[in-house]
Batch of 4 targets.
Target 1
Amino acid sequence: MKKISIIGAGTSGLAAGIRLQSQGFQCEIYEKNEAVGGRMYQIKEQGFTFDVGPTIVLMPKMYQELFEMSGVKSEDYIQMQLLEPMNTIHYPDSMALQISSNLPQFISQLESFSEKETAGYLAYLADVYDRYVRAKNVFLDISYRKPSEFYNFKTFHQLAKLRTLNNAYQSISSFVKEDKLRKALSFQTLYVGVSPFSGPSIYTIIPMIELLFGVWYIKGGMYQMAKAMERRFLELGGKIHLNRTVSEIVIEKGIAKGIKVSEQLIPSDIVLSNADFPWAMKNLIKERKNKGKYSDQKIDRMKYSSSAFIMYFGLSKKYQTTVHQIHFAKDFKKNIDQLFEGVIPEDPSYYLYSPTQIDLDLAPDGCEVLYVLVPVPSLHQTKLVWNNDAIQNLRRQILGRIKYIKGFEDIESHIIYEKIFTPETFRDLFNLQFGATFGLQPSFFQSLYFRPQATMKQVKNLYFVGSSNHPGAGVPIVLMSAKIVANEIMRDHV
């Protein structure tokens, strides 16, 4: 039985561990933090329970398939609920648009703009669904080991059909003309940390996935998925070592031989890194010759996703709202441009998440959980310093905006618990290079074949998985990354 040392108990590390353990490998996970989950982390304080990172459940079959392939029923591990409405979008002029997967209900809202806009919206759905199927089957669910697997007639023919060189906003603009609808169909690129005005148009699949497959909620919060994966991995015989920091991937003559933990060598037949790929290249692989094309200089030159400023509030009062809310800035384009120019947006958009609207167990009686996320620049190529003044200024600004929401006027007087995460928190707690919460930016030349792959030709028996690797960021996509790397390991070692 071959032993695999997995670095990091993040989403894809746990998922890959389940797949490999169920195929007869002996997997041991080494995690630097005191609990599993990576960015799918949890805060529990004063009776309040907060999801730290991801909060939106898309493509539930991807979650369920992981348990079912290992021989159990997914409903015995996670309980999912379809959200209706899936989210509410608030515009600066006080108009609100409730996004619903209930088509008759949603159509009536679209028709309030015009029948022409409604037809354009439906045409967008049909067009992007075809592109989604093509991307999933041809590009996303495979690993690129050599140039010929990408540079061929079939690939370029399919890329042309995907129209990947347009940005997301341009692609959507060809279907709908109303600016409010364009924003409603483009902001989701921020789910993977890229601008809708520069990110490849393929990311318009995200709002399509929301509308056609629904937005779901996992009972107990997103962290229950991490706990369910931990449970299944342990049931299969895997081992998890918490509070154990990996300091080096040991490589001898181009072959991974194990890892070092507190200077102790852990011999391994296979090493699988779930650490953020850029961080792992700079910190865990010591010799330049083993880094391949990913020198420290190249890592620093690569493009990184945006980051997040998140406020976790425990409130001593119930507030009536929806689970997910988006609040747009007055000048959305300027907001996004500043986000990727390395400055805190003057007038930021923000996202509210209140799972206690439907899950009362996450807060004391009569209380509410409110998660407030503001997209901000990563620490890459910026002089931003997240000192107390910067944190408090942004906190005051966003709370000032929230207090204008009907029913939330008194929110500040009801905050009885709060915690704030900045890009520096994400950098330090999760070893994310430059605090980029979604890893490498999924620009065209950092996607597909151009993105770090599951394998490295310079080093045998070393594999990578996670959001900075192909196919990219987002929980369903990193679950796909886990499936890809497990298949690659079985291809080489079975």
Target 2
Amino acid sequence: MNVTQSIRNPGSINVYGSYLLRADPDLALVVFDVDRVDAQPAEAFAATRSAVEQVRKFLSTAGVASADVQTTRTTLQLATTGYGVDMKVIGHRAKVGFSVTVRSLDNLESIVVGIVGAGAHSIQNVRFETSKLKELRAEARRGAVAAARDKAQVYASAAGVGVGKVLHIEDVNPESASRRGHAVDLDLSAFDESAGTPNGALTIAAAVMLAFAIVT
């Protein structure tokens, strides 16, 4: 078995700690395109601009703040149908991309339906997020440090030595750590299992490598 040693010249207690917590999402990011096809580029642009205005009007009526509506520049490309030798050019497609933050999940379904009704042909993605991500990541990082310290104390006790001051702190990507074979110290103590979690519940993870001085 190969063991990856990220701390060079080890002369200490080197441990990996990780922490996972779950959080209910309180907002959603809706990603979609508004596009129109016409034989003439100018007409495609005009039709797309009109559809974009209808979508913006709906979002404003639905209570979505203008700051929560992000759009891309209008792009133009050939519109085709079929594949390979059967492919035919049918005109020009003008497209504008939207990214809309919905801060009331109770209104998400009606807003998605309204977006399509206002002019979007389809919704590309709906991603659930949390406005408390910074605070939750900080909590997960503190938990990862605590997990690493607890592990160091177990090893030190078993070896008949003590845990001294911290000599090295290294932030670790939890996903890459998992791929390298580090075990995840699952800690969901902040999550009430009896309450259940909704579909789309978020998992926030943190991981760290710590080196502690050995006290003899």
Target 3
Amino acid sequence: MDLQIIGKFIKEQRKAKGLTQVQLAEKIHVSEKTISKWECGNGFPDTTLMLPLCNALDINANELLSGKRLTNDEYKTQAESNLLVLKREQEQSNKFLLMLENVLGYMSSITFIILIFVASFVEMPTWTRILLMVIGFIHIVIGIHFCLAIEKDAGFYECQHCHHKYVPTYKQVLFSMHYGRTRYMKCPKCNKKSWQKKTTK
């Protein structure tokens, strides 16, 4: 996707509808700055805003992703191309998030170990020792929370029985047995439990 082309298309369609940036922003419940950012090619509407924007501009999602009006002949070809682009971008985003999860996990663990080590073996007042331990525990709990949130949302888990791919609930991820990124969970489709591997595709 070329954000510059899409931004120019949004601007053209907004003007064709006789709308100012403020009026369009009000229609889809965003700020004027958000519309300006899209039109300048510095951002793109998330999935919750794509359809409201398309409805306001009287275009379809495929045209928005293509950055141009499409004829009937172009529609199917462009739709397939856009789906491939979106899938590729989603895979890249998932890989980045999983890498970020690793970094957060290691940083939280190392910080926790250092703070507990210092609190245990360095001479200091009792209140300072307790404070360091509390900070260490808070730090690792927050780190684990964010890691689990990323683990839940980035990519999919694949059932080993029916090969259904799905995004589990936070509760499933939190309470399931696991090793690495493989978790023992119940598939929502076949209701069978299995060791399910994380996949970004």
Target 4
Amino acid sequence: MHVIHADHPAYIASQNSIKNVTSKNKDGWLSLFADDAVVEDPVGKSPLDPEGKGHHGRDGISAFWDMAIAIGDIEFKLLQSHPCGDSCANVAHLTKRFSPEMAIEIDLVIVYRVNEAGKIISLKAYWEYDKVARQLGG
């Protein structure tokens, strides 16, 4: 069970990110990011980010949404939240359903960092791509 930190800007941004992802609100999600933000999901090289440098700016983050978030439905269970300084680290369990018969489970830690205006400047999701790919038979 996580504690609510209603006055912490990075916690608020993380909650708004979760809300927009689970409700499939792309425009709402993109509005949470600063113009020069970077999304690394997962952190490092993967088929979602072959160079491992993240998705930069609104255009890059928008393309990431289309590739990784828009397909299927996402259920997000927040287990713990740790706001500190300009960041908030969330421990979560995510289920992504592609169809009633096909879903993947992801245990992850997501670190959100915000600027003075409360806009996300960095989103880093730590999860094992290969472990998730095995669920899909890959």
